[in-house]
Amino acid sequence: MAFRIGNPLGDRKASLVWSPENLRLAAGMVFMIGVFAYALLLTRGIPTLTPQGLLLLVASAVVGAYMAMNIGANDVANNLGPAVGSRAITLGWAIVIAAVFEALGAIIAGGEVVGTIKGGIIDPAEIEQVSEFAWLMFSALLAGALWLNLATALGAPVSTTHSIIGAVMGAGIAAGGWALVNWATIGQIVASWLISPLMGGLIAATILYVIKRKITYRSAMHQAAGQVVPWLVALMAWAFATFMLIKGLGDLYRLPVVQAAPVGAVVALAAFLAVRGPIRRSAATLENTKGAVNRLFTVPLIFAAALLSFAHGANDVANAIGPLAAIYEAIKTDEIATRAATPMWILILGAVGLAAGLALYGSKLIRTVGREITELDRMRAFSIALAAAITVIIAAQLGMPISTTHVTIGALFGVGFLREYLKTNYAKMEQTIIAGHEGEERAKVEAYLHRFEAAPIEEKRRMLADIKARSPGIPEAPLFAKKERKAMKKVVKQQLVKRSLVFRIVAAWIITVPATAVLAALLFKLIILLGG
């Protein structure tokens, strides 16, 4: 018998010290210390900077990096969750791809000039002192970051844009009163809480239903996929090309929808011609199963995740660097600016912060979005990604402000509720019919219903016609009462009807703006009280 000499209590303490959570926390602290040194090195040479201004600017850079980390941890899951949940890509590779494309989007297209007052939520002309404005933006940045940290810890995907908007609003009210706020903009944001998920859910459910109708409800699924998938890829190419031109390239290059859509059509045609042959040849070699057909959606999903990550980095990095740029401009020029030039060091700080937050803490929300809300395969994930891009295009054309977080989560719910509706509807029909039969007849009915469930739409219609005729030449068709035949027919009809989806807005979405507003107001008042 071998004896192990050691200290079990010491081993337990060591395992706690080196736990993954503590390692992530330590890595985050090292990153923040690095940001402090980085900001101090690059700002101390500014001629107009006072010691107090230097302290505020360096502190703001640290908080800005903290905000960027939380954006990376919370918001990026919307782009990666469906692809990871469907197992189109592993979690590790998803984080690598997203970190690279988030950083590229932030640096390349993050904008040389950013709006310092997100969404025009307050009127800076009502603020008298530049120092007060700088502390207002600092309070908003810290409040938004703290709220996102809490939401991420709770596993709640929330809008990072709404977080900073609510924080700016609250700090603005604390600084200048209620009249400082643009309440029309707040009204549009409130409306988007309902519109974004509904629109995303309805579009995603529609796309998924079309895929079911044209591919998985067919007897020869692999052949149907070879015909349909190239058109779906072309639609995705159009949607993402148009999306990138109207929003995804940030301030680098933008076109209105009416100009971007035709360019997207050209890209779609090129994509269709490029993929039609390879997809048809690949489909011909597949087994005639849903799992095999799912593999055709892998590459489009990876491209979608990369493009969404680039677009997110280009646009939402401003939620971290916008307030920081405002503070930098105020300290440097002693003026309040609604648009400010963004030094490269601030862009890099935001980009690296996004990547660091994603790498350290993004896995939790990726799992929540990809695996916990509803079970995903690659067809469903494709529907979600495509719905997100199409929804942004429609909203841009209508001039509606929407949250891509709400759109993506709404699309997830849409896909999940559609599946639940179809399955529940079939289960009710099955229970109704089986309850009316006993003995050997019940076994025969159950076997027939099993065939009915697995059959494609065309076969279902034939089976319904057979049992209605009660043909003696079809011994395997049991005798169903008229009420039972109607129940079976109702299933087929309801599978062909587009379903309107009703959602309950997630509580975290509703309280994001007021929660960050209250927190930012308290922080601002505390700073002023302490002599800020």
From TrEMBL:
It holds the Pfam family PHO4. It is found in: Membrane. One of its GO terms (molecular function) is phosphate transmembrane transporter activity. Its main location: membrane. The chain crosses the membrane at residues 23-42, 54-73, 133-152, 164-184, 190-211, 223-246, 252-275, 296-314, 344-361, 381-399, 405-422, 501-528. It is a multi-pass membrane protein. Signal peptide: none annotated. Keywords: Membrane, Phosphate transport, Transmembrane, Transmembrane helix, Transport. GO terms for cellular component: membrane. GO terms for biological process: phosphate ion transmembrane transport. Belongs to the inorganic phosphate transporter (PiT) (TC 2.A.20) family. This is Phosphate transporter. The gene is pitA [C].
